[in-house]
Amino acid sequence: AKADGRGRAQCFSTSLDSEARAQAALLADLRQAVAKGEFVAHFQPRVGAGDGRASSAEALVRWQHPQRGLLYPDAFIEMAESSGLIVPIGQWMLQAACKAMADWRRAGVALQRVSVNVSPVQLVEGDLVGQVREALAANGLAPESLEIEITESLLVDDHEPTFAQLGALRAMGVAVALDDFGTGYSSMAALRKLPIDVMKIDRSFVTDLETDSSALPSVRAIVALAQAAHLHLVAEGVETPAQADMLRELGCHELQGYLYSRPVPFAEFGRLPCVRQAG
Ligand code: C2E
Ligand code: CA
Ligand code: CA
Ligand code: CA
Fold first, then answer.
1. Which residues line ligand 1 (CB under 6 A)?
2. Which tens digit of pLDDT belongs to each residue from 37-83?
3. Which ligand sits nearest to residue 60's alpha carbon?
4. Is ipTM beyond 0.85?
5. CA geometry: angle at 117 spanning 114 and 122, to 5°?
6. Which of 88, 106, 153, 206 is the most buried (most CB within 10 A)?
7. For the whole model, what pTM was predicted?
8. Phi, psi values for residue 256, rounded to 5°
């Protein structure tokens, strides 16, 4: 038994070591990636609930790793946030999204705006307002063409500089969306104070709509909240026509999910069936 215990302990410490080594290697790779520009923006359409046509696009980061291939955010966002590298990565994404929007405009792809996910770290440590101004100006875009998506975690301890930056962005005309709504702890009282224009219902509610009878009243309550606060309401993770029908009838304005398209590279976006192309 003793030998067993030691064996397990040894095994445990070896796996800790290799875990730590893997993390250190990932961090080194991530620094390289920032220096070399190995990130790619993919785009997923958001469609009007009424007409099913793309009205906006969400930019989602991917990392073209030289050995490991295309990596998704789950593999590196946490590390990017804890190391602060999310600040330059996020700035690059803002630029990439604004450039895509300007290119679509020129190509006759009619979209109201492009939305970009922003980490709390970018608001606490970075100059998000300055970066947004720069990205818009560099691409000749009006602020109304941009939306930033933040999560509730940012808003729990009403952090003054954060609210000030969000306020400055909204004053410019940039829309602010609250992502993953319903997964955190926002109360009605908190929601009233939030500097936001758009609410995104979390995918988990949408997934459960057809199968879990408790999901429908939850979504109804979220819709009522959004309507009371005059927010634009987006549902994410829409995968079936039945979900889309329910969400449309409930009063969502925009729908997003695999039913319309997975996130795709810039070059493919303009060719999606739901995307309007002039000429
Ligand atoms: P999110 O902002 O909630 O983005 C939605 C995620 O759900 C995306 O995963 C998207 O590909 C996926 N998705 C979209 N439609 C469906 C659907 O119908 N079914 C299912 N099962 N999934 C769907 P992705 O691209 O892997 O991104 C994961 C998360 O990583 C994002 O969640 C966001 O929190 C974060 N992220 C992505 N890009 C960025 C970025 O540029 N900056 C920051 N800070 N975070 C990012
Ligand atoms: Ca998002
Ligand atoms: Ca989301
Ligand atoms: Ca999410």
1. 44, 60-61, 72-74, 77, 86, 90, 93, 117, 119, 149, 179-180, 236-239, 257-258, 263
2. 999 999 999 999 999 999 999 999 999 999 999 999 999 999 999 99
3. 1
4. yes
5. 125
6. 206
7. 0.93
8. -145, 135
